[in-house]
Specification:
Blueprint (H helix, E strand, L loop, with lengths): L4 E3 L9 H6 L1 H13 L13 H4 L2 H17 L2 E5 L6 H10 L14 E5 L5 H12 L3 E7 L5 H18 L1 H7 E5 L5 H9 L2 E4 L13 H9 L4 H14 L10 H14 L4 E6 L5 H15 L7 E6 L8 H6 L4 E10 L24 H18 L4 E8 L2 H22 L10 H10 L6 H10 L1
Parallel strand pairs: 2-3, 2-4, 4-5, 5-6, 7-8, 7-9, 9-10
Antiparallel strand pairs: 1-10
Helix pairs in contact: 2-12, 2-16, 4-10, 5-10, 5-13, 7-8, 11-16, 12-16, 13-16, 17-18
The structure holds 5-phosphoarabinonic acid.
5-phosphoarabinonic acid binds next to loops.
Length: 447
C-alpha cells in the first residue's frame, strides 16, 4: 500500500533498536500527556484533532467564498510572518510549477509574500511589480499586532486603495486573525473585509490546517480537500491506539530523542527536490520554536540537495560529529525527462543514455546517505510517494504530532515561544516606540 514510510534502520549502527525500544515507554507517556491534554501548554492543543474536525462542507464553503477573488486576481500577496506564513508557503511552493510566475498561461493566482521580512528594497520592488498586475491581499496575524506584517499591510493597503479605489480594495483584502482581539480584527470589522478566524487554541506554527493555510492555498488553486484528507489519514496512523512500532510519529520522536541523548545535537532535514525548500523552513520553525528553550533542544537545520552537497557537503561528511540527518525522499516525480545520447560523448555521459534525471537524483541520494553513514552521520529516511496535496497533508501532520510528543519527551512546553519576545523589546526601544521610554534610555546606554 502506498504510504509515507519512516525508515530508521540506518540509525542502528549508532544506537541499537533496543535503545530506541527502551524509550518506547517514555514516548508513550509523552504521547499520553499530549492526548490527555494534561501537560504544559495544553490550552494550545486545538491542532491535534483539527483534521478530523474539518468537514467537507466547510472546505466547500471556503472554495465558494474565494471563487470570485480567485477569478480577478493575478497575484495574491500573503502578508504574515512565522507560523502565519510558512505553512501556506511550504504547501504552495511544493505544488506549483517551478516557473509559474514566468509561464504565459496562469492557471491560478501566483502567491507572493510580504511582511515576512522588513527589507526596504524587497517592498519597493514588490510594489513596482504590483503596479503591473491585478492583485489581492490575505493579511494573516493571530495577534494582529506583529510589527513586520502590520507594517507591510499598512503599505500594501494604502497602495491597493490608491490603485483600485476604496470599495474595490475592500473586496480584495481578506483578513485571517483572532475572533475578537487585535488591530487586524478591529480593522477587518470596521472596513468590512472578508475575515476568517484563527482558533484560540492553535498556535502559529501548528496552524497550517486552519484558515491561515487554507485560505491562501484555496485562492491559489491548491486542492485543500486533499490536503486536509491527507492530514486526517495521518492523524489515524498517529493515534495512541496504534502500537508504538507502527506509529510513525512516536517512532520518529523516540529516535530523534535517542540520538540527541547520544550527543547528536543537530538534525538536518535533507531534501532532493528543491520544491521542498519551504517545507524545511516550516519544519525548522515547528521544531525550533517548540523545542529550543530552557537550554535544551535539537537544533533544526536543513539542506537542499544535491545543490548543498557542493556547499555544505564537506562539513556534513567530516565536520564536528554532532549531526544526524532526516531525508525526505520523494518516490515518484510528476514528469519524466530522459537523458539523450550524444555521438561525440565529450562529457562521457552516454552510459546514462535513456535513463531519467530522477534516476541520477536517486543514486545521488543513496550514495550520499551511504557516504554520510561512513562519515558518522546517522540517517532517518522519510519516503513520500509523490508531491501532491494529500501526501503533503500527511507529512505536515506527521511532523506536528511528532513535535508535540518530542517536546514533552524533552521536558519543555512545546507550545509557547517566550524567547521570540526578546528582540522585539529592544527593537521597540531603539525605534523609540511610545511606552518604551525606560527601555530606550537603558538600551542607548549600551550603545
Ligand atoms: O508560531 C508562532 O506563534 C509565531 O511564529 C507566530 O506565528 C508569528 O510570530 C506571527 O504572529 P502573529 O500571527 O500573531 O502575527
Amino acid at each position: 500500500m502506498e504510504q509515507i514510510n519512516l525508515d530508521i534502520s540506518r540509525v542502528e549502527q549508532f544506537i541499537s533498536s533496543e535503545e530506541i525500544k527502551a524509550l518506547s515507554l517514555e514516548t508513550l507517556e509523552a504521547q499520553g500527556t499530549l492526548y490527555k491534554g494534561d501537560g504544559q501548554g495544553n490550552d494550545y492543543l486545538g491542532w491535534l484533532h483539527l483534521p478530523k474536525e474539518i468537514s467537507d462542507q466547510q472546505l466547500d464553503d471556503i472554495e465558494q467564498a474565494v471563487a470570485g477573488l480567485k477569478e480577478k486576481t493575478d497575484i495574491l500577496v500573503v502578508v504574515g510572518i512565522g507560523g502565519s506564513y510558512l505553512g501556506a508557503r511550504a504547501v504552495n511552493d511544493a505544488l506549483v510549477h517551478n516557473f509559474s510566475h514566468l509561464m504565459k498561461e496562469q492557471k491560478a493566482p501566483h502567491m507572493l509574500f510580504a511582511g515576512q521580512n522588513i527589507g526596504e528594497d524587497y517592498m519597493h520592488e514588490l510594489l513596482e511589480l504590483l503596479e503591473e498586475y491585478s492583485y489581492s491581499i490575505v493579511a494573516i496575524s493571530k495577534s494582529g499586532t506583529t510589527t513586520e506584517p502590520a507594517l507591510a499591510f499598512r503599505i500594501l493597503k494604502n497602495h491597493l486603495e490608491k490603485k483600485v479605489g476604496l470599495e474595490e480594495a475592500r473586496d480584495r483584502i481578506v483578513a485571517v486573525t483572532d475572533s475578537s482581539k487585535g488591530a487586524l480584527r478591529q480593522l477587518a470589522d470596521e472596513e468590512g473585509y472578508r475575515s476568517y478566524v484563527i482558533p484560540d487554541n492553535v498556535g502559529g506554527r501548528f496552524s497550517v490546517f486552519t484558515p491561515v493555510g487554507l485560505i491562501p492555498l484555496a485562492i491559489c488553486g491548491v486542492n485543500i480537500k486533499e490536503l486536509v484528507s491527507g492530514a486526517k489519514e495521518m492523524s489515524q496512523r498517529c493515534d495512541p491506539s496504534v502500537p508504538f512500532e507502527e506509529n510513525p510519529a512516536a517512532v520518529y520522536a523516540a529516535t530523534r530523542n535517542a540520538l540527541y541523548r547520544s550527543g547528536k545535537k543537530i538534525e538536518l532535514l535533507v531534501n532532493y527536490q528543491n520544491k521542498l525548500h519551504y517545507v524545511s523552513e516550516w519544519w525548522k520553525q515547528l521544531f525550533g520554536e517548540s523545542e529550543g528553550k530552557e537550554g535544551l533542544g535539537i537544533f533544526p537545520a536543513a539542506v537542499d540537495n544535491s545543490t548543498d552537497l557542493h556547499s555544505m557537503g564537506q562539513y556534513i561528511q567530516e565536520g564536528e560529529r554532532t549531526l544526524f540527518e532526516t531525508v525526505l525522499s520523494v518516490e515518484k516525480t510528476d514528469h519524466l525527462v530522459s537523458i539523450p545520447g550524444d555521438p561525440a560523448n565529450l562529457d562521457q555521459l552516454n552510459y546514462l543514455e535513456g535513463k531519467n534525471i530522477d534516476h541520477v537524483n536517486k543514486m545521488a541520494e543513496l550514495g550520499t546517505i551511504l557516504a554520510h553513514l561512513d562519515g558518522g552521520v546517522p540517517n532517518i529516511r522519510i519516503s513520500i510517494p509523490a508531491l501532491n496535496a494529500r501526501w503533503l497533508g500527511q507529512l505536515l501532520y506527521f511532523f506536528e504530532n511528532a513535535c508535540g510528543i518530542s517536546g514533552y519527551m524533552l521536558g519543555v512546553n512545546p507550545f509557547n515561544q517566550p524567547g521570540v519576545e526578546a528582540y522585539k523589546k529592544n527593537m521597540f526601544a531603539l525605534l523609540e516606540k511610545p511606552g518604551f521610554e525606560a527601555e530606550t534610555a537603558q538600551i542607548k546606554a549600551r550603545l
